[in-house]
Design goal:
Distance between the termini: 76 Å
Number of helices: 16
CATH architecture of the largest domain: Orthogonal Bundle
Shape: globular
Strand content: 5-15%
Number of strands: 11
Order of helices and strands: HHHHEEHHHHHHEEHHEEEHHEEEHHE
Helix content: 40-55%
Largest sheet: 3 strands, antiparallel
């Protein structure tokens, strides 16, 4: 009987170990899945800071073991950035070059990607990289090693292999549009999510807009004086001011005042802000702005005299969340050609596109203003992989 019980116990332990191993493996993600999860963030960061999306994704793949490393799971740190003396955010201990080193901890992957961009942009020893072409991934790979990002002598070769194996350079072609212009001489590394407000404010060309302009002038002046922002009347309202008092003083129905300012209920104003007395425009006075300090999406809409719903629509955002320094936000619809429609008539001829080197479904879909899903459906594609010279139906 004792022998039987021992055998049963051993079998149970084997089964438990097998189930645990299966559970761990089930949570593993592939390099392709990692790329699909974070490619959009990498492209957004390229447009924000100018770092090739291919390089960012390749570094992420390497540093996180395709999203499966112990460090990334406990810290959301995708790039192995250590705390250093100037880091004021949270940290976790992890064994690397030495035992128990401090690594930066982030609330989510997007914060890690953003800090990675800020880290490179603000580091003086990385400044020469930003003189390279945004599509020169080989130059960036060797430049990162030269600047001391990694100690592994094979680091550039590993990044390049990842980029070419998974065709990551196709994302550089998307991110190369609307790249911001920066003066790297003005950039200095700061604490936490690196602050580069002054550098951003002085580096963007005047026609693009880089601050709140009219709003800043009004907020620095006296309260309750009627001014114009983006063509709409508004006042500066101090913290603690009653919305009902403002409505009464300016002969506006309270509900209308709430509607104009996209507020849900009456009460006292939480913080100093602009309050509009007439409906805001659905378009801004500029094509886009580069936000110069951390704000809410609502405050950006108020300070630019634009309806919140329009701001969210132009930038494909939801209502909640902060906007961080250096973020590019569109205040008008982006100019693009009308969508290509598939005509099911018998006389409709397909519009074909021949795949060129470094092209991917994402870039081709954007070029013809269709979705990746449509391209897959029309061409009966089972994956994102394309071959040079392949003919794709992109419309009819």
């Amino acid at each position: 009987m004792i022998q039987v019980r021992v055998i049963k116990k051993i079998v149970q332990q084997i089964l438990i170990a097998g189930c645990w191993a299966f559970s761990v493996n089930a949570q593993m993600i592939t390099p392709e899945q990692y790329i699909d999860l974070y490619k959009d963030i990498a492209v957004r960061e390229m447009k924000r800071m100018g770092i090739p999306a291919a390089i960012t994704l390749a570094q992420g793949l390497l540093e996180t073991e395709s999203g499966n490393s112990e460090l990334v799971k406990k810290s959301n740190n995708h790039f192995g950035i250590k705390c250093k003396s100037n880091w004021t955010g949270e940290g976790v201990t992890h064994d690397d070059d030495s035992l128990g080193e401090c690594f930066r901890k982030y609330a989510n992957a997007e914060d890690s990607y953003r800090d990675h961009s800020n880290f490179l942009k603000a580091g003086k020893h990385y400044s020469f990289l930003f003189d390279l072409s945004s599509t020169d991934y080989k130059g960036w790979a060797y430049g990162l090693k030269k600047a001391g990002y990694a100690t592994n002598p094979k680091y550039p070769a590993i990044l390049i292999r990842h980029i070419e194996q998974y065709n990551l350079q196709r994302f550089d072609l998307e991110g190369a549009e609307d790249l911001p212009a920066f003066n790297t001489q003005n950039l200095k590394e700061d604490t936490a999510l690196v602050k580069i407000n002054k550098a951003i404010a002085t580096s963007v060309t005047p026609t693009q807009g880089n601050d709140q302009g009219e709003a800043a002038a009004i907020l620095s002046g006296a309260p309750d004086i009627i001014n114009l922002v983006n063509g709409s009347k508004c006042i500066k309202a101090l913290k603690g001011t009653s919305l009902l008092a403002i409505a009464t003083r300016h002969h506006i129905a309270l509900q209308r005042l709430l509607d104009i300012n996209e507020l849900e209920e009456d009460g006292l104003i939480d913080e100093e802000q602009l309050i509009f007395l007439q409906k805001k425009s659905d378009k801004g006075s500029k094509d886009f702005i580069i936000v110069s300090k951390k704000e809410t999406r609502y405050s950006v809409a108020q300070n630019n005299g634009i309806q919140l719903a329009s701001l969210l629509e132009y930038n494909q955002l939801n209502e909640d969340g902060d906007v961080f320094s250096g973020t590019k936000l569109y205040l008008k619809p982006r100019v693009q050609s009308g969508p290509v429609k598939i005509n099911s008539g018998h006389n409709a001829k397909p519009i074909l596109h021949e795949v060129k080197a470094k092209e991917g479904l994402y870039g081709i879909a954007k070029k013809y203003n269709v979705s990746v899903e449509q391209l897959k459906e029309w061409n009966k594609l089972g994956s994102d992989n394309l071959k040079i010279g392949q003919q794709l139906i992109v419309g009819k």
